[in-house]
Amino acid sequence: VNQVANPTLASSACDMVSTAYASTKESPPYIRSVCDAAEEGVKSVTEATASCVQPVLTTLELHVAAASEYPSKGMDKLGEELPLLQKPVEQIISDTKELVSSRVADAKDTVSS
């Protein structure tokens, strides 16, 4: 899970969602109360799940560690083949805008010629 969240793309996307959530939560009071209630619900479910799953994870820890090796290698390979995952969302958006602008300018020049 940590390795999936580590690439710059995933991390910056999470940051953007977090920022959007925080600013939405600062909106009218009724939105804040809905967000607070949702957070409490998620917190309760997480705590209940953690207390139920922890004994199982303790028992299976060695097996989980061995099994996590394969996705880890897969994430390393994916990172090598898709360098886009190492870029922040803002840079991807900026690069995409530049590429589209360049292509539109090229098409415009071609049509003008």
Automatic annotation (TrEMBL):
A Gene Ontology BP annotation from the UniProt entry: positive regulation of triglyceride storage
Protein's cellular compartments: Lipid droplet
Keyword Transport: no
PANTHER family the record matches: PERILIPIN, PERILIPIN-RELATED
One Pfam match: Perilipin
A GO CC term attached to the entry: lipid droplet
Gene: Plin3_0
UniProt protein name: PLIN3 protein
Organism: Centropus bengalensis (lesser coucal)
Family: Belongs to the perilipin family.
Record keywords: Lipid droplet
